[in-house]
Amino acid sequence: MGDRPAASCCANGRTAIDSSAAIVGWLNLHDSAFPAGRLVHSNGIESWLRAFPDAGPDLIVELVVDYVATSVATLDAVVGVHAWASDDLEVLRALDRELLSYKTSENARDASLKPGRQLADTAGRVGMNCEVPDCARADYLRAVSSARAPGNLAVVEAVVQAGLGVDRRTATLGTLRSSMASALSACVRLGRLGSLGAQRTLVAATPALVDLAADVERTPLDALSSSSFALELFGMRHAQMSPRLFAS
Question: Is the peptide bond before 5 cis (omega within 30 degrees of 0)?
């Protein structure tokens, strides 16, 4: 698996699109205004914050950083790296199913599947799909939209990024950074973290995210894991919360 830009489509031997265009597409995809549904889910953070009303900014930031390092970077992003590298529909569907098998609670499945399916649909609507109709990546996105593939966010996001011509490292960093930004945004919207504090955290986390991306690329599929147990447990409690701001 090389670190070259993925092809914009996987048919007829066509090469990656211009790198500048790929970066613009990457920026659009990871813009908070892009309607992918990421910001609808707190991944258990809302429930955790309600259980710990006295938790200060330092502890909240620690929770978010730990979630990205021990769940996203060891599970979702790893599957995403392998999906980025694949131009085979059945392999993509198999990766999708494997990731779903690790989502053991309804909360976890909702937070992975709903934004993934929305991203697949939005990518097609705004023109982020592959240029060639019989491209395996385009076939996968259509399979997600028609419920013939699960559509986990990490897999859909990797496929879209590969189709845009985004290189592997940048795609991995996009997944990690968006996950952290989404979690921090939940804390801000819930009134438990200031917006400047969230941005300081993202800036300070840059070296760690770069290191995590390198680790993700070296991780084989048989080493998948997730150990963000606190958020998983509080995520399971989320459905019983009333009222609540986030879907999960």
Answer: no
Q: Which CATH architecture has domain 37-237?
A: Orthogonal Bundle (1.10)
Are the C-beta atoms of 164 and 115 separated by less than 8 Å? no
Kindly calculate the radius of gyration of the chain based on its CA atoms and give it in whole angstroms.
17
For 166, residues 6+ apart whose C-beta sits below 8 A from its C-beta are 5, 6, 22, 23, 25, 26, 174
Please write the tens of the pLDDT for every residue from 193-223: 999 999 999 999 999 999 999 999 999 999 9
The identity of residue 100, as a single letter, is L
Best CA proximity match to 113, nearest among 125, 103, 128, 122? 103
Residue 239, judged by CB atoms within 10 A of its CB (0-12, 13-18, 19+), counts as middle
pTM exceeds 0.85 for this model: yes
CA distances from residue 29 to 85, 115, 224 in whole angstroms, order as listed: 19, 13, 26
Alpha-carbon 94 to chain mean position: 18
- Token digits of residue 35: 């309607």
Q: Which residue is associated with the tokens 């609507």? A: 125
